[in-house]
Amino acid sequence: MTSVQTLGIEPALIGNPHNVAPSADQVIGARHDIPLYSETCFLTSWNPDNGVGLFLHAGRCRQDVELWWAQALVYLPDGRIASDRSWGRSPDNDTVQTGNFVIRMDNPLHGWSSTFDGAAEITTAELMTRHPSGAGVARPMRWDFHTEAAGPVWDMYAALGRETMHDFAQGSHTQQVLHIRGSVTIDGTEYALDGPAANDHSSGAREMRNFGGHYFLVGALPGRALHTISIFGMDGSELVTAGTEFRATGDNPTLVLTDVPTLDRLDTLPPSFESTLSHDGERTPVRIDVLHQAPISITTDNDNINGVDTDGPDLLVLSEARVQLTLPDGTVGHAHLERSTQRSRLNQA
Predict the structure, then answer these.
(1) Spatial distance between the Cα atoms of 57 and 138, rounded to a whole number of angstroms
(2) What pLDDT digit, counting tens, does each position of 117-147 carry?
């Protein structure tokens, strides 16, 4: 099997094909003059050796853009998830911080670092489909890690060739495939954080009324870094598709992921399915095996919730899945696959 250390692109070959400015990979700053302003950052990781990974997601509160919220989810063995949500104000403009949760964008274009020292509720994805999590019985949790570039920073707007993403997103959106190094300790048990990772960082106005659902995949194969996203309106029409495959050879074709199963149920995700990677029209089958997943949900006011709130107004529900990719020739990679739909469209039977 492919070693996770060979996934992505060697540092000397990474480059900056989208000409991303270092300032885009740092905290953008609060904007009080832009209605519905948002700035978010996300980091995901996976260690195939111990079945442990991270889903970290933080953003500015819509009602007070100086206030950050943060979701901290740790994928644990045997289907368990450690879940915490926190709020706070960052003391400077170099970090995203809620107090015990800190992401430092301290090495622009080359990777972020993070620390946490707090506690988390131990739950499962199945329980999170029934109600929100992160505020129940908790156990101590802490981590300390840094990440290293395993691909160039991807600029979604550069890939699209325009400055807006339909009517619901303007501003900036970058992603990067990474390797992670560090550890997380939960209730006295330490787990290594060593393997494939990725981040994204976005800012600008966000209007979600016509956001019906989407999927995106960010990950790595040997010598390759993958970025692809498709977004659909409330009527199911395709609004946006963008993607790039960065290669160690320097050719970076357009990448599209298709044949992704619709998110119909959160409690019975298919353990594996066949999809298609298209590079400038050349189609390659890919088997996607789901290794772990956590459900979250987002309101139209941009409230980000660990799990699914089954009461109140309709929500956008998301599956945050760590997956393994297998190509027809046996090449293996790892990625994060996010899929979403409106809660009202889930099969509740």
Answers:
(1) 19
(2) 999 999 999 999 999 999 999 999 999 999 9
Domain ranges of the chain: 4-9+35-345
Q: Is the pTM of this model over 0.90?
A: yes
Q: What is the pLDDT of residues 319-338, one digit of tens each?
A: 999 999 999 999 999 999 99
- CA–CA distances in Å: residue 141 to residues 47, 118, 137, 176: 18, 5, 13, 26
Query: Which residue, 123, 147, 158, 166, is CA-closest to 296?
Result: 123
**Which amino acid is present at 287?**
R
CA angle 275, 337, 28 (to 5 degrees): 140
> What is the chain's length?
349
Question: Regarding the domain with residue range 4-9+35-345, which homologous superfamily does it belong to in the CATH classification?
Answer: AttH-like domain (2.40.370.10)
Task: Please give the structure tokens belonging to residue 18.
Answer: 């989208």
Helix (H) / strand (E) element for 160: namely helix 156-160
Bridge partners for 122 per DSSP: 82
